[in-house]
Write a structure and sequence with these properties.
Layout lengths: L4 E14 L2 E14 L3 E5 L6 H8 L7 E6 L2 E2 L5 H11 E4 L11 H11 L4 H14 L15 H13 L5 E5 L7 H18 L2 E6 L2 H4 L4 E6 L2 E7 L8
Parallel strand pairs: 3-8, 3-9, 6-7, 7-8
Antiparallel strand pairs: 1-2, 1-4, 4-5, 9-10
Helix pairs in contact: 3-4, 3-5, 4-5, 5-6
Length: 237
């Protein structure tokens, strides 16, 4: 682990029982991430991408090895401590937006702030600023069934970013979107990465996502087989 690392994985294995045997979803993973990275875990289905995201996000514990996130050894955290880390410091974006259909865009985005007990006087300012980031200021009163797929995913990003997480973990965030909406979503995330210095780590095999990455980490059968800077100076398209 370097002094600048905010995420560090040291000899991490993740093993699942399968019948009388074992399946190694992750094998001897050694990785470090610094603040402000825009990185992707790339590989085919079953290569260990989502498992690795779950371990970094304190949703699952490694079978062996050490995982440090923002100075905390997540493999040693109790369930309540893991939940607190996720609530305060981490953000998750999934294939499906998971917006609550009975709530407006504003109310969906407000939920994390309510859980964090953010004062009402601060919530409105934070929500409206976040809506502006993702280009949904005019949709704040709309419910999800009145939005397009791309708008729903941008609302989901806003719900994540409203609490200003230090790390965002995105699992195939463009899988259900067409090319135009995919590029819009990726440009939004790239902008937030550059302006807020938020660290983004993707799990993907989508070439559209890979085009935007600065760091590309290839997984094969649970192992890191390549870790490269694909374009150090890459900017938003």
């Amino acid at each position: 682990m370097t002094e600048r690392s905010i995420i560090s994985l040291d000899q991490v294995d993740k093993v699942f029982p399968v019948g009388d045997g074992k399946f190694y979803a992750l094998k001897q993973i050694d990785l470090n991430f610094e603040e402000g990275e825009f990185a992707g875990l790339v590989g085919p289905s079953g290569s260990g991408k989502t498992t690795l995201l779950n371990v970094i996000g304190a949703l699952d514990k490694p079978s062996r090895g050490r995982v440090s996130v923002l100075g905390q050894d997540v493999s040693q955290l109790r369930a309540k401590e893991s939940a607190h880390l996720r609530s305060e410091k981490l953000g998750f974006i999934f294939q499906t937006h998971n917006l609550l259909p009975v709530y407006t865009v504003y109310e969906n985005i407000e939920l994390p702030l309510l859980l964090l007990r953010t004062p009402a006087s601060e919530r409105k300012k934070m929500i409206m600023e976040t809506l502006e980031w993702v280009g949904l200021t005019d949709k704040w009163k709309s419910k999800p069934n009145k939005l397009s797929g791309g708008q729903c995913q941008r609302a989901a990003i806003a719900r994540v970013m409203v609490k200003r997480p230090q790390i965002v973990l995105a699992d195939e965030p463009t899988a259900n979107l067409d090319a135009e909406n995919s590029h819009m979503i990726l440009k939004t995330m790239k902008k937030l990465n550059q302006e807020l210095k938020t660290t983004f780590i993707f799990s993907t095999h989508d070439e559209k996502v890979i085009q935007y990455l600065v760091r590309k980490i290839t997984l094969t059968d649970g192992k890191v087989t390549q870790d490269e800077i694909v374009n150090k100076l890459k900017e938003s398209r």
